[in-house]
Amino acid sequence: MPTSPKKRRMSESALEMVAGRFRVLGEPSRLKLLIELEVGEKCVSALAEATGLTQANVSRHLQALASSGILGRRKAGLQVFYSVADSTIFEMCDHVCGSLATRMKKQADTFRRASGPAGKMGAAGFEPTTKRL
Fold first, then answer.
1. What phi and psi values does residue 5 have, to the nearest 5 degrees?
2. pLDDT digit string, tens, across residues 79-121
């Protein structure tokens, strides 16, 4: 007999911390920056060039990621270099991407089944028509 999943118990402050982590990752530009930093540390100007974002925008996003503990930073002269401090972030991204890929495959399979044999049905399973309204 299968066991039921264990119910998670989290305090309000713990829930706020988790929600904060998801909020930080909810910005596509920050995900671009993380992808660039996955291969190693980079300075702000290199990240701006790689992502096409302005230096001011990059700095703002890096500050948010660093404040949340996802990134670390080190200063070398006038430049600041950023690196990934919490590499588990990529495991979470892999889970999300895998889940999205599975969902999209199911939707594509459903669409293909609804469309029927090629040439007999139009998009989404509707009969093609030449009649104009």
1. -65, 145
2. 999 999 999 999 988 888 888 889 898 888 888 888 766 545 4
Q: Which two tokens stand for residue 125?
A: 């399973």
| C-alpha pair distances (Å), 98 with each of 34, 72, 73, 87, 101 | 18, 27, 30, 18, 5
Q: Where are the alpha helices (DSSP H) in the chain?
A: 12-25, 28-37, 44-51, 55-67, 88-115
pTM: 0.72
Question: ∠126-127-132 over CA atoms, to 5°?
Answer: 105
Smallest Cα–Cα separation from 82: which of 22, 128, 34? 34
* Element at 83 (helix H, strand E): strand 79-84
